[in-house]
Amino acid sequence: MATTQQRTDHRTDHRVTFAVLCVGVGSFSLLQSMVTPVLATIERGLDTDQATVTWVLTAYLLSASVFTPIVGRVGDKVGKERMLVVALGALAVGSLLAAVAPSIGVLIAARAIQGVGGGVLPLTFGIIRDEFPRDKVAGALGTSAALLAVGGGIGLVVAGPIVDALSYHWLFWLPMILTATAAVTAHFFVPESPERAPGRINVGTALLMSAWLVALLLAVSQGHSWGWGSPTTVGLFVVAAVVLPVWVWAEARSDSPLIDMTMMRIPTVWTVNLVSLLFGMGMYSMFAFLPQFLQTPDEVTGYGFGASVTVSGLLLLPQTVATFVAGLASGRLAARYGSKAMLVAGATLTSLGTLGIVLAHDHVWQLLVESTVLGLAFGLAFAAMSNLVVDAVPQTQTGVASGMNANIRTVGGALGGAVLASVVTAGHRPDGFPVESGYTHGFTLLVVTSALAALVALAVPVVKARTHLVPGPQADAESALVAGASGN
């Protein structure tokens, strides 16, 4: 068996690897949010209707939710670098197809292909853990995790100017160029991980997981327009409720599970995943509804600021900068205070910042201060969640554990967005705009979910960071240790 020294000879400098990974994560997160502010423009450009154009978002959500954990697990088994190139390639191909799409159907298909790129997230975390010096792992994980929130914020900022100066097609051309470059660079410069998870790829449980995820997210994302009591919506919820326990049962009995239920029962893993669900409800809902609030014409409704898409994005720029700064600082803060403390602080600040919006939203400077607090919170919490999950699982399960954590956060975002849409639009003015109380009630709900996230974060057990292990008896001993920590 090759020694660690032999395997690490001639490997790429970790800083080069990190630059490639950041481009991939940043591009994926941009594509999550950049399209949202310009759906009306796409609707007009492709001569479609509002109900159909929302599938541009839904297709991406469904595809990413399915492929994020699957690609992460395949990377654990066949090689993270190899699958990173595949994920980046899917982002590039999907972006190219979206940029030249002649119809809404082609654009929706392109967005589904882009969703495969969700695998970039768990693969990035796994490669960092495998390749970086131990003292650099926490900072690198924090920065790359914060890029998820940063990219979401930047997408809202740049969407308007790009469409105004060029066209909505460039919302896809630019990510295509970035991800294609990153895919080629990853092939040549990102080293292949020596770590491999044993066993085969369990196709059956992958299909079961895909079935309940798609049923749940499709019902949640479309229920508002279909009607929460419609046969289609109710039927999808029933499918999700039936298939989910079947999937858990099948994974628990499998000798080669896609998602190891023993790993999911590790106290640190399941508590952080619960925080991710609650935190995702608040963060992604804020990304969706705060720009709408800013764009509401105050001279008509008596609230809002009548900002354009471009101006509302620029008003959220301080939030994005704060998220990036918090992500950069997260490594040092975690080393000094611990990732658990950062997670509690991030969730608490989210609750306080959202409460500020509920109580004081009549002046621009108030929202600037409050959204900046939210930005700091997002950066701290994203970094802490990634560090806690990565440190809690064996090295051969980093990809799938990170993928499920990201996936659960996405599910939380979908749930939060659906609930908030129902609350905000529960009452309408004669001019069609929501009443102001709809926003305040909706944001109050997010205060509650964020406060619950902070309380759950207090219960997260602290796991000592694991060192790099080579395959063999040490790795087996580590797996036994994790199993013991989960009570098995």
UniProtKB/TrEMBL annotation:
One of its GO terms (cellular component) is plasma membrane. Signal peptide: none annotated. Keywords: Cell membrane, Membrane, Transmembrane, Transmembrane helix, Transport. InterPro entries: MFS (IPR011701), MFS_dom (IPR020846), MFS_trans_sf (IPR036259). Gene3D superfamilies: MFS general substrate transporter like domains, Multidrug resistance protein D. The chain crosses the membrane at residues 16-40, 52-71, 83-102, 108-128, 140-162, 168-189, 201-220, 226-249, 270-290, 302-329, 341-361, 373-394, 406-427, 439-460. Pfam families: MFS_1 (PF07690). It is found in: Cell membrane. It comes from the Bacteria. SUPFAM superfamilies: MFS general substrate transporter. GO terms for molecular function: transmembrane transporter activity. It is a multi-pass membrane protein. Residues 17-468 form the Major facilitator superfamily (MFS) profile domain. This is MFS transporter. It comes from Nocardioides islandensis.
